[in-house]
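Fig. S4 source data, part A: sequence.
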Amino acid sequence: MQVIDDLVLEQMDARDAFLTDRNERYWAAEEEGRVEDALPVEVRQVTKMFHVAVTVIGVLLAIIVLSWTR
């Protein structure tokens, strides 16, 4: 009877390890998917910031050029 109990405990430990590993891989994939989904949003925000910076520099250069030509 002890042999059967030991085998059952061994199988339960193996099952728990398998389920834990599977659960960790699932949540890692979910996290990776969320990061990949958020990447285009961040790229858009950086692109908008870049365009705003270029516009501000262009306006400042125009003001400097106009002030020198007068």
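Fig. S4 source data, part B ends here. Helices lie at 2-69.
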